[in-house]
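Quick one - inputs below.
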Amino acid sequence: MKHTLSVLVENKPGVLTRVAGLFARRGFNIESLAVGESEDPTLSRMTIAIDGAEHPIDQVTKQLHKLINVVKIRDLDPAGSVSAELMLVRVAAEGDKRTDALQIAEIFKAKIVDVERRSVVLRVVGATDKLEALLEMLQPLGIIEITRTGMIAIGRGRG
Amino acid sequence: MTPQTTKMKGSQAIVASLEAEGCDTLFGFPGGMVIPLYDALYDARHLRHVLVRHEQGAVHAADGYARATGKVGVCVATSGPGATNLVTGIANAYLDSIPLVAITGQVKDDLIGTDAFQEADVTGITLPIVKHSYLVHRPADIPQVIHEAFHIASTGRPGPVVIDIPVTAELAEVAYRRPDGPQLPGYRPTLKGHVKQIRAAARALLDAERPVLYVGGGVISAGAAAELRELAELLRVPVTTTHMGLGGFPSRHELSLGTLGMHGTVTANYAVHECDLLVAVGARFDDRVTGKLSAFAPQARAIVHIDVDPAEIGKNVEPSIPIVGDARHVLAALVAELRKAELPAGRTAAWLARIEGWKAEYPLHYEAPTDGTLAPEFVIEEIERVTGGEALIVTDVGQHQMWATLYYHFSEPRQWISSGGLGTMGFGLPAAIGAKLGRPDRTVIDVSGDGGFQMTMQELATAVNYDVPIVVAILNNGYLGMVRQWQELFWNKRYSYTCIGVQPDFALLAEAFGAKGMRVTEAADAGDALREAIASGRPTVIDFKVTAEENVFPMVPAGQAITEMIGGKSSRRTREKKP
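Output:
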């Protein structure tokens, strides 16, 4: 099972290295990792996606907790959280392909953020599976370049 | 009220901070990027600096000091090569959970990252082998960082902390102020065990007919030996210790099984194999202990695992009753819980009788050599006789180390000082110096091998320099004996590069350093030589010429079940049958 860990860490130099280094030396495979400042400027929040079938998630969180700079870890339940990822994708769009690209962009509510003669760049935000579906649709046109932020996630409110 | 501050240099703040933490001894070696710190040490009144001859000696000495005293060991090295020479010792302390603070100089703050002279990314290099580390960019942070480093190193599961300090921070002027306390929002070790879990463990103990306490270094670091003994005696539960747990329970106690695992006793390994309840305390189910994991404690209906580090619980073995907490708190709570219950009298009597049977059938044994050499096991027994079993025994790594675990009987915690997890050759001599400086009241014997001794023998100069009267007993067999043993048993006796018969005259070498050197070739002289060495009050090296191809038995070949022992009975090299 895939797990999404929301990890609150002290906003200090080297913390990302400590987390990444821990994953590497314990042999845990990170599917994605995104990090940025949290509501408290002294703390950063990391969203780490990891395959729980491959590594016991319990061991991953316990090892993470041993890092002095890790303040709090939440294993986000998919039903109780929302997640999103940002992707920029440059796709071939010469001649007839341009119309196809624009149509697909519209269906996926992707924005065209760059246009030139031979290609367009789409910007899309959504759950990982939506991004995958978009890529599948764009594949026949010819994908030139992809860049993704990695997933971020947040727990749903209880109210 | 404004807190009291004093203006001083960063280097002086380091010294003031160390003194504030109660540090009285540090081991180090100067260099370009710590000259300001050494200048401040020149004036230090409450801090003794011990100049070693190689930085590896500093970190092992600090480690030995920490193991002997229970305090935080401190070492200092300069940037680059000075710091990288500490790496082995930091890893050694990490694997054995030893409280250690390593202070390293770093190049000027604005030169970091430019491949400056003697620059190495020390926090980066040591990242996987530290409990935590700091690179101090702001000189004003020095007192807080040192305070936190001591706190982290010595609490929870202890471990090494590296503080890398650019020389610019040492030179800067800071307003020194004693820190109020650590500011570590993510660090709160759990010391007290969960009440419900402790109750469950108490019930399991009351129900068990064949319980075994399997005890590791956590009992030593938590200071839980008294609580452990109380628990064992209360229910009459036999105790086996790991290498790291030696001294946590008296070896001569009737409930002691000795050590378990690869070079454990037959009795301990059989007892673990047949137990119906295994209670692990401050131990981590290391592969050298468990052998083949799937065949470890197969009859145990319950496994209780008590550890202060939650990540150890369930890492190798999934316990039925996990308890996160410090060994002393948890064992005390467990005893209190048991005292509330009606204790089943004599419940373990049949089990203890079975264990006595094993002890009688499979005692440790060795044969007297016929080639005129000394049996290494005999030398260990002589050391015990001469010291009345009361010396601090420090070892290097190899066969001699295993013989010391088997043939010396320990009666108290911190009496056994040895590199466990990392298995670091060269640990013994510097660690013995650190131990003796920490416990000057005790006789300190470094049991070493001719291989390991040569890795850090330059520290004899340190022992002479500071008048540290340790006795180094080299069990000299002319081989890298443990590897030779594996080659003999598993590699067709192909002794590839393990013969080190070309070696210095160790007695003369000791004299060259200004220490006392002796050689013993006759069994009858061993005791007198040891007595003379101890009485001399000088650092002494005794070269014991021991049997060249003696093996450490019993032995469980790597990856086998721990009941698959070689050489447990007097007919050597025969495999024991499973019980």
